[in-house]
Structures are given as structure tokens and as C-alpha cells.
Specification:
2 copies of one chain form a homodimer.
Chain A (H helix, E strand, L loop, with lengths): L8 H6 L19 E10 L5 E11 L5 H7 L18 E5 L7 H6 L2 H6 L1 E3 L9 E5 L8 E4 L3 E4 L4 E7 L11 H7 L7 E2 L1 H13 L3 E7 L2 E7 L7 E7 L3 E8 L4 E9 L9 H10 L3 H24 L6 E8 L1 H8 L4 H4 L13 E2 L12 E4 L9 H10 L8 E5 L3 E7 L4 E7 L19 E7 L10 E5 L7 E2 L1 H14 L11 H7 L7 E4 L2 E7 L11 E4 H24 L9 E5 H4 L4 H6 L11 E5 L1 H11 L1 H6 L6
Parallel strand pairs in A: 1-5, 9-11, 12-15, 15-17, 18-27, 21-23, 27-28
Antiparallel strand pairs in A: 1-2, 3-4, 3-5, 6-7, 8-10, 10-11, 12-13, 13-14, 16-17, 18-19, 19-20, 21-22, 24-25, 25-26
Helix pairs in contact in A: 8-9, 11-17
Chain lengths: ~625, ~625
């Protein structure tokens, strides 16, 4: 399982994550996928245990169990931020040959260790695992979000339960003064919505009410004590895929995560096509705005239903999107973003209500949009930088958000530089003959054996959902090209080799090379040997060119940034691959294709949906949110 | 014309308004009405004179020509605030035997004085006058509003015309930054509405635009230079009558004034009845809110049409109303205002858009509501205090806003006390048998001659519109009772004397006493001697009782306030009668009926629609508006 001389246990120790221990940790080569089967225990209000729920998730190998859970909305106790110090993220790996760390020994007795108990932040998922998650023991005062960022909970959304004295002729204070006098650590402002309800709610609830506050705006009063129920939704508003995470902002716990295609897709696969569409027909802006709103609204409805919470108790949403997605969601004309000299209407989006975006949550729920650095380094990147802590880390790190528009940020600990590369839709399955997004039926992992004999498979495919392959997603595309280069069927220029050479180089695979029309293709999935090439799932010569264009754009981006700071490839201490695609990319294939600098795969980490993580941080901490401002200066 | 020993020229001089001069000023006895016929000259954009317009107005005697013009939306140059110092309020009284003051002599040559030129702030309208108003000479930097208050113009609504550099690749500032950098004396905040328009307007207008600002909110950008067009509407939102004044906030000039009955009337004549209606049926609050909005919207439409301006160029409204009217207009439940311990939801109304009230003006026009002192001393009184400058005046003054709910404020120069008296609807013609509001056909002035002989009229009526009398308005009611007391037909307890006594006391009037059912009445207008009493316009015994209740409530109010400060009647240096009714009350009758302390009528001044004046001040000066705050503390 080793990646050869590039890898050593010392590397892992240098990352500060795992202490060498008796058992050699099982490492990975940066390819493939692992399945984690979670059994999640939880307690009802009174403390009684309720039947556990089951969740299966699929992540790239090497991700920690804690991160895999967190990305998928599964809450595990933690206060230290995944550094192995709080000893709270206890999980039990069933039947697992999982390495034992120094921290495990301090946390568990030998019987527990034998039963599989480990600290979740130290267990790398290198193979399929069954994981048991105990009930949350405390309402944490802090939560772990982003890339191991420990955030002290101080959400913009606050609830305060108060029991007030009724008015008398001797105490004719106004209803509002009565309430705000009881919450004198905040300078509250009441809007019309709350003033319309205030007197009725106070009297019907015998002056025992919960004030709902966002920042210093009193947005509602609810009868009785509802302070345990305060929720918010973090959105990663991508050009292709939109992800929503429902958070309990009182505990920092993610309650549900879901994603779907941006409903703006029919207007074009990338931002430029959508901007062009608004320039062609002036009604299109309104339709794109509605489509964005409908996407967010559908996701909001789904996460609330999944978690079984009342949408009216969602008081804030945070949205991380690129400058075009942000403009379109707000109904702001994106035309100046699409034509030279590429200017934004405003770097700082206005404060709006979620209802103005078409979301049916609390009627006065606020929508926070991340500010942008420029027309092509948008709020999603600012959110991602917040999530990765790039502004606080002294290491030299390269952050690449791989997507239709690919954003690249380099930090040497002092200076932060950023750029954007128009990679096109290849990574999200667009403009690829058999391209599809990462959904059931998509080939995401490919292994080729050029000399397979007899019954040995020459082509091994990893397919999402373990169903009949229907197409090729972005990570499958990168894998396919990397494997074809490795076995020699693609030459150094990216051209498929002639049939004669193929027979010599890779006898077991040569019959997979075919032609559709004038174009050469490599058949990845051929149901029967007689299936017509056009009926197969294949990689075409043009697909290879698309990936080359995308790779060229990205590598030009980070090469320029490295040059600007006078750095070499080897100076980069960590590469974070972000975005819903980047996180699921085979790191080995990414290195082989030149998408990232040539480094050991262990220095290349899947950062997950960092834009979404940044949005979660903004919801959980007004201090972190305020931290997005200096990034702009 | 003298009022006897109570009056002397020294009194006038003490008021600081008129210098004794060669011609004895013609004074008045506080009764009746005078008609002023204005001929208003104005200039077109280029400076060419346009045909003059004619306006007739009807005011109580003693009001200055300047005030009479101002109350009716007729603009006269002035910067000093009516103190005779700026010498700008030049008018020409046609054929007038109008006193000449020291200031007139300094301002005009003898030929001009002979032609009738005078300073308008020093001419008291004691008889019908024809007045010529010259065109405005300057865009004033200050305006006179309220009760002779001089206000330096600094409206919340500002316009700034800017010519910006287009964006280039070397200057990729956002559109918003480009605009706000050019207006760097303000910290502007842009809302979504303006961000949606900004990029299009900038480019279509070649980057030459006018920023529309309210406070520090950028609410719009308009193509080209529209800075000359900025308007606002001041509303006096009364329980019975609502008055709207359209202002050019750039010059402080009132452009149009109009009034109408509050459309909430069908729900009850006074605030308690309307509050009760909301308690009976929970849909009523919404209907009252709509009615208030519809009233304001209709007035707004009328003043814009009258002045010929585009409602979309009205960027702010200010609304002075009592606590109940304010709550109902905002859709806030008024129930706690109507039941002990009488508390408001909030003293400070929230900031809202005019559109939220149902007004179709600029879509982001703001609505400013005055804050309130208490459940029964509302924003209208705070506005009135601002207008009268009570917070700045060292004199002992009593301010009485006569209306359905009567508010009374006493200041001795240091301390300000206020109270409210539920006077009932008598003053606005409600609950009076032949009552009507002050409209065409309403008897407003009554003179009785108890010993008229032959053709001499025993009853002389002043009727609004000089038409056939249809009913009795508030000032007519007060006049009728005062006259009946004076001639002896009402005894000191307010009872109509027996028929036998009447024949002795007032032979010419005795046949006017009649009965309708069991109730005694005095026939004010009897078309023919044979007309049935019930077909006449009359004053009934019960009407007298209604006025007595109202008077008792009011005089109890100011008596308590005087006692609290240890003052006597004679210590009061000025009584200001405010409200659309108070201003038109006969001061002599008010004294005779005990509505106000027993003082010379010259110390009793009609203050006009002070709530409306306060609203105008708030629109013209953010400094004055801020002055409303300390009044609350």
C-alpha cells in the first residue's frame, strides 16, 4: 500500500496528526474510494436513548473519520478542532485493524481499545469501515468546522428567554423597553415585524418569552422558552452544484447536508455562458435569479425535512458563491463581470432577507453573502480562506478550488496571493462526450492492467452507487487520463497512440481503442464485446484535450503565483484541493496529470467543501465572519 | 375694533412683532375670519416670468400674511424666520391701509410704501386683503417653518450629481466604490434595490449620474443631473383630519397642501372607539391599517398632481400622529393603548419604507414617524413642540392642541410638562346634532344681537364657502355657546333659560328657542319662519353639555399643569392653540368659554397645524429631527 520512497511515517508525524505507535498505520496511495458505514446513537430530550440511525458515506482514502462525518452532517463530540487534544471525539470502529495512537492509549483502557474505541480525528479512513458514534455528551461551547478550525460559538443568531414583570400604572414602560431592559448587554433594534407581534405575544405568554436576535436586530419574540431551537443554513452556491448544510447554531452541530444541481444549469454550464444569456435577453436575469432562489429553497426544504425541524426556526443563512453566482442570486446585473474591464457592482453584497431570495424560513431570517476579492475571486474563495485558516497559518500552502472556474490561492505565511483560472466544465462532467456529474452510475475510479491475462480484468471501474456505468464524472476523467498515460496509451502530448503501438504496449487493452466517426476513443465500459463504440462509456481524444486545457489553465495559475513569491514546487508544504470535485479527486492522478505541483500525495489533502465550511463558520461565529473583512484589504 | 382696556399698543410691542409707528395698527377682537386673496408671481427655469396664479385663503384675524401664506403652501422669500430682520418677505398689499413699521421704512422707499409694499411677516391680517407675492429671488439655504422657526436646510434627502471616470483594466474599482469615492463626505450604504440598477444606469448615462441619498443610505442612482428635483411629504395624521404638505426639500418651499377626512372614520370617531373595534374583531386592525394607508396615499397623489411633480421623486415622508394613529398606520396592535395601564408597544416607531404603508412614491422612499412621550401624548405633540420651539423658548407658554384627544403642554422655560384630555369629538363636529367638519356650508362664526329691531339681523352667521348653511363646525359650536352666554340665553350652568325669561332678556332672539322632541334647541339658521325646527341648523341643549364636557377636560388639564409648576393664569405669557380646529377657533369665544386661561386675546395665538409644521421641520432638517429625541428624556 506504500507509495514508495516518497512516503515515510515521519511525513505523517510532521503533519502533526499521528504519533508513531506500535501498529503501523495503514496508508493509502491516493486513489480509489472508501465506504464508511456510520451507526449514530443519540438521546431524546429527557436523556433516554433512541434507536440508532444508519448512514453510509463514501470518501477519498486518507480522510479522517471525524472529517468524513463532519462533511456529511454527522455530529461527533469535539472541542479541540481535531488535534487529538480534547479526547472527546470517541468512536468505535467495528472489527477494525485500526492503528492505536498515543492519544488513544491515554483516553481508553485496554478493553475499550480492544473493542475498537478510538479518537475519530486520528483515524484515517484507508479502507471500508463500520463506525459507531456515541450520543453527544455536551452542548459544546465550541465547534470544529472548516479544515480543523476550532471555533468558539458566538453565532449572530441568539435567543434569550426572559420572564418579565407585567406593566402596571406605576410602571408604564413600553413593551419594547420592558424587553430590552431585560437584555441590557445588547443594543437591540426592533423592526416592524416584531413590533406588530410584540404586545400580543407578551400578553398571551404571560410575559414569558424568548427574544430572537440576529446581530443586534430583534427579529421576533416567541412565546415561552424556545432557546434550544435556533438553526441556520450554510450554502455553497456553486455554478454547477449547490450544497446546503443545516446547523444547530446553539451547539455548532450539523443536522443535515444535501446537494443538488444548480437550477441555472439550463442557461449554460459556466458563468460566462450565463452572463451572455442575460445580455441576449433582458428577462433572463430575472429567470436566473428565480432559478438560484428555487435551488436554495429546495435545498432548505430538504435539510429541514431530513432533520425534522420547523423551517420557521431557521433565522439566518450564509451563502458562499463566486461573484457571478452572488450577483445572479441577488438579481444584480452580471454584465460588467463578463466583459473587460471585469468589474463588480459591489464587493460587499447588501444585507437582505432570506425571503427576498425566495426562501421560506423565518420571515425575517437574514441572508449573509460573503464579500468578494474580485470579479473572478469571489465570496466562495473568501469563505474557503476562512475555512482553511489561511490567514492564520504560517506554512506555505496552496489552495486550489477545482471547478468550472478554478480559484487558486497561495500563502507563504505572510503574503496571500490569489488568481482565477477558467478551467471550463470538464471537471464537473461538462463538455466531455460521456460526461456526467458525480451521481449514481458515474465512473469515478479507473485502474488499467495493460498485461492482464485470461479472466483477469484489464479495466477495473469504481462506479458511484455500484450500478451499471452510465458516464464519466470529473474524478473519473482525471483518473482515466492518468491511467492511460501511465500505461502508455496516451503519449506525452496527450495523443492516443496508433493501434499498432497499442498492441505492443498494452496487449490486454488494445481492443478498447476504437473510432467514433473520425475521432479516436478509449472504451471504458463495453457491456459486451459486440456493443457499438457509440453505445459504450468512453473517453475521447477531444475529452483528453479538454482536460489538458483545464490543467493548463490551473497549472499556469499556480506557477505564476509561485513565481511571484519566488518559490519552487518543493517549497509548498501543503496543497489543499477544495470544491465538491477537488475533494473527491484522486490525489495520485492529480499529481500525475500535473494539476498540482509534484509532491508526495500525503501533502495533498482533500479539503472538502471549503466554501460551505466557511459559510458554516460565518454562521457559528461573528468573530470569524468579521475575519472575512481583512482578507479584502 | 379695540377689545377695551385689555388691549394696548404696548402689548403688541411686547410681543416683539410690531414697532409703534405713525399709523396705528388695526387690531382685532379675536372673532370672525378674514379673506386673503393672493396673486402669486413666479419665474420659469430660464428666469422668464410666467402668468401669476390666484389663491384665496381664509384665516382668523391677527395671523400674519406670511404665516397665512405659509400654512397654505404659498412660498414667500424669508431667511430670518419672521422676525422682521432679513427684510426679504416682501409683499404688496393692494389698496391696503396697512400699518407701516420701522422695518418697512428701512426696506422700501416712500414710493414703494405708497404702492403698498410691506414685509409680510409684520402685516397682521385684520381685515380682508389682496396681496401680491413677488417671485422667489433665491433658493434659500434656510426656510421658515413651524411657529416662526428658522431652519437651516439640511434635509435627510440629498442628491449629488457626479461625473465619474469609466472603469479600465488599470482601475477595476467596483461600480459602487467608484460612486462612493466621489461622495467621500458621507459613509454611504447601498441597498439591494440600488445595486440592481447601478451598473446599468452608470453605463447608460455615461457615468454621469445623480445619487439619491436618505440619511446615509444610497437609495437610488438616476441618469444625468436630477439634483433640482427632490421632494418629500409631511403628514399630520389626525384622528379625524389628515393633512399632507408636499415640500421641495432643496429650497424648503411648500408646493401643495391638501387635507381630507381620515378613512378610518367609519370605524369610530375617536381613538378609543377604534381601539375597541380592533378588540372586537381581529381583522379590524388590518382594515384600519389599510384605511390609514389609503388616506395617506390619496393625499400624496393629490399634492403631487397639484404641484405637477412625479411621485417617484418623493423620497421621504414624515408622519406626525398620536400614539394610536401611529400604531394603526403601522399595523401594530393598539389594544394596550386602550386599556389600563395604557402602555405603548414602542415609543420609537421602527424605520419603514413608505411603500410598506401603501404609498406609491419612490419605491425606497423612507417613512419617518415621530416618537411619542406616552400613550396619550404622541408623536403629533412631539412634532408640535418641535414646531413651536417650546424646548428653546424661555417664556411661560401653554400649548393646547384642540381636537378629539386634546394634548396640553406647559413650559416655564425650564420645565416642560404635558398631559392629555379626552375632549371627545365635539370640536370636530362629532356628537353634535347638527355637527359637521369645517367644510363648505359649515357655520364657523356667529354674532347675536338680542335687541335687533326691524330689518336688523338678530343672528349673523359666517359660513364657510359663503353658501347656504348646512351644519355647525367646531369653531361655530364654541362661538354659538359663547354668544348665547354673552346675551344671557344660557345661564351660568349652561342651561337654556325658560321661554319667559328669554323674551325679557333677548326679545329679538326668543323665537329662536324651540323644542325638538323633549330637547330644547336654539335655531341658528331657519330658512323661513315656518321651517320645522328639525329642518333648521340648530344648537341643542345636549350639544352645550358636550362642549361643557370637553371644556372641563381641557381646563382641568391645564389647571393641573399650572398648579404643578405653582403658576397662576396671569403668569402665562402665551397660549398657542393648535390643531386644524384650534387654529380656527375664535380666541375671544375660547376665553369666554373657559377653554383657555383668562388672558387678553392677543396673548392667545393660532399656531396653525403644528404637528404638520413639525413634520415639515423634520423633513427639512436632520438637526431639528434629532431635537425630537431629547424631548423624550
Amino acid at each position: 500500500m506504500s507509495d514508495g520512497p516518497d512516503f515515510s511515517l515521519a511525513d505523517v508525524a510532521r503533519e502533526g496528526l499521528i504519533e508513531p505507535s506500535g501498529a503501523e498505520p495503514a496508508n493509502h496511495d491516493g486513489t480509489g474510494r472508501v465506504d464508511l458505514a456510520f451507526t449514530i446513537h443519540s438521546l431524546a430530550e429527557g436523556g433516554a436513548e433512541v434507536p440508532p440511525t444508519q448512514r453510509g458515506v463514501r470518501v477519498p482514502p486518507g480522510v479522517t473519520v471525524f472529517d468524513a462525518a463532519s462533511w456529511n452532517g454527522i455530529a461527533i463530540d469535539s472541542t479541540c478542532g481535531g488535534h487529538g487534544t480534547c479526547h472527546k471525539c470517541k468512536i468505535r470502529v467495528e472489527g477494525g485493524q485500526v492503528p492505536i495512537t498515543r492519544h488513544d492509549v491515554r483516553t481508553f483502557n485496554s478493553e475499550q481499545i480492544a473493542q475498537g474505541w478510538r479518537l475519530g480525528c486520528l483515524v484515517q479512513a484507508t479502507r471500508n469501515l463500520a463506525v459507531e458514534v456515541p450520543p453527544l455528551t455536551t452542548r459544546p461551547k465550541a465547534a470544529t468546522v472548516g479544515i480543523g478550525r476550532q471555533v468558539i460559538l458566538r453565532p449572530a443568531v441568539q435567543k434569550r428567554y426572559v420572564e418579565l414583570q407585567e406593566a402596571t400604572l406605576a410602571d408604564q414602560r413600553t413593551d419594547l423597553a420592558r424587553l430590552t431592559d431585560a437584555i441590557d448587554d445588547l443594543e437591540l433594534t426592533a423592526d416592524l415585524h416584531v413590533l406588530r407581534r410584540l404586545s400580543t405575544v407578551l400578553r398571551e405568554a404571560d410575559f414569558k418569552v424568548t427574544a430572537v436576535i440576529v446581530d443586534e436586530d430583534l427579529i421576533d419574540v416567541e412565546p415561552g422558552d424556545t432557546s434550544a431551537h435556533r438553526y441556520a443554513i450554510a450554502f455553497d452556491l456553486g455554478t454547477t452544484t449547490v450544497v446546503g448544510t443545516l446547523l444547530d447554531v446553539g451547539t455548532g452541530t450539523p443536522l443535515a447536508v444535501t446537494s443538488m444541481l444548480n437550477k441555472q444549469q439550463p442557461f449554460g454550464g459556466d458563468v460566462i455562458t450565463r452572463i451572455s444569456a442575460t445580455m441576449m435577453d433582458k428577462d433572463t436575469l430575472g429567470r436566473l435569479q428565480e432559478a438560484a432562489g428555487a435551488t436554495l429553497a429546495e435545498l432548505a426544504g430538504q435539510v429541514c425535512r431530513q432533520a425534522g425541524i420547523d423551517p420557521a426556526q431557521v433565522y439566518e443563512v450564509a451563502i458562499a458563491g463566486n461573484a457571478t453566482m452572488t450577483a445572479l442570486a441577488l438579481g444584480i446585473d452580471p454584465e460588467p463581470l463578463g466583459v473587460a474591464p471585469f468589474v463588480m457592482t459591489s464587493a460587499q453584497p447588501p444585507s437582505v432577507l432570506a425571503a427576498e431570495l425566495g426562501l421560506t424560513l423565518h420571515p425575517r431570517a437574514r441572508a449573509f453573502f460573503f464579500p468578494a476579492l474580485g470579479a473572478y475571486v469571489g465570496g466562495d474563495i473568501v469563505a474557503g480562506m476562512l475555512a482553511t485558516g489561511m490567514d492564520r497559518d504560517k506554512r506555505t500552502r496552496l489552495f486550489i478550488d477545482v471547478g468550472t472556474n478554478c480559484e487558486i490561492v497561495l500563502s507563504d505565511g505572510d503574503t496571500i496571493l490569489s488568481t482565477a483560472a477558467p478551467a471550463g466544465p470538464a471537471f464537473e462532467g461538462g463538455a466531455i462526450r460521456c460526461g456526467m456529474r458525480a451521481a449514481d452510475g458515474a465512473i469515478e475510479v479507473i485502474k488499467l492492467d495493460p498485461t492482464a491475462l485470461g479472466d483477469e480484468p484489464a479495466v477495473t471501474l469504481g462506479v458511484i452507487g455500484d450500478v451499471e456505468p452510465r458516464g464519466l464524472c470529473g474524478s473519473g476523467l482525471v483518473d482515466a487520463v492518468a491511467e492511460l498515460v501511465r500505461v502508455g496509451l496516451l503519449d506525452s502530448s496527450g495523443r492516443m497512440v496508433p493501434d499498432e503501438s497499442a498492441k505492443e504496449i498494452a496487449p490486454a487493452l488494445a481492443d478498447r481503442l476504437a473510432k467514433i466517426g473520425e475521432e479516436r476513443v478509449f472504451l471504458l465500459h463495453r457491456p459486451t464485446p459486440e456493443t457499438e463504440p457509440a453505445e459504450c462509456v468512453y473517453l475521447s481524444q477531444r475529452d483528453v484535450r479538454e482536460l489538458q486545457f483545464a490543467k493548463a489553465a490551473i497549472s499556469t495559475g499556480w506557477t505564476l503565483l509561485l513565481e511571484q513569491l519566488g518559490l519552487e514546487h518543493r517549497d509548498v508544504q501543503q496543497v489543499q484541493l477544495a470544491g465538491s470535485f477537488g475533494s473527491y479527486l484522486s490525489t495520485a492522478s492529480a499529481v500525475r496529470n500535473g494539476l498540482v505541483p509534484k509532491l508526495t500525495v500525503l501533502r495533498i489533502v482533500a479539503a472538502g467543501n471549503v466554501a460551505g465550511e466557511g459559510a458554516k463558520m460565518a454562521l457559528l461565529s461573528v468573530r470569524e465572519r468579521a475575519g472575512a473583512r481583512p482578507l479584502l484589504e
